[in-house]
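<goal> How does this chain fold?
<sample>
Here is the protein in question

***
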Amino acid sequence: MKSLRIGELAPEFDLPDQTGTQRSLTSLLAEGSVVLFFYPAALSGGCTKEACHFRNLKAEFAAAGAQPVGISMDTVDAQAQFDGKESLGMPLLSDADGAVATAFGVRRKYITPVKRATFVIAPDRRIIEVIESEWSMDKHADTALQVLGAPVKR
């Protein structure tokens, strides 16, 4: 299965975040662009590094009119533990049955439940960038900011 591509419309979804609050793509986009990053497992080493990099660039995303939103097949409780331990301060969505991962074309049967992939989604639901890198944890946030026209501060 191939991931969705630039120019395609992101599928609508409605998933619980780490607090149990239902979040739809439409409601998230009401605040501006969404940088939806799929990660294989909450609290794992690589996913923690990736999510913390998004957290550390939160002000830059806000200045660019966008918000990062994490999503994995972990439970709401696991997402809550992840946020609590790392003070991520962003929505972490629980796609427990993998339906959203399947709709975005990032669900896998082997290795990890999902591919590490990030979709930069404009307020009109159009995908303006797709970032796929299993090994460069910083690439996802850095590239998303570049696409949004924001300089990356180090």
Observations:
- Residues 14-147 form a domain with the Glutaredoxin fold (CATH 3.40.30.10).
- The CA atoms of residues 40 and 112 lie 6 Å apart.
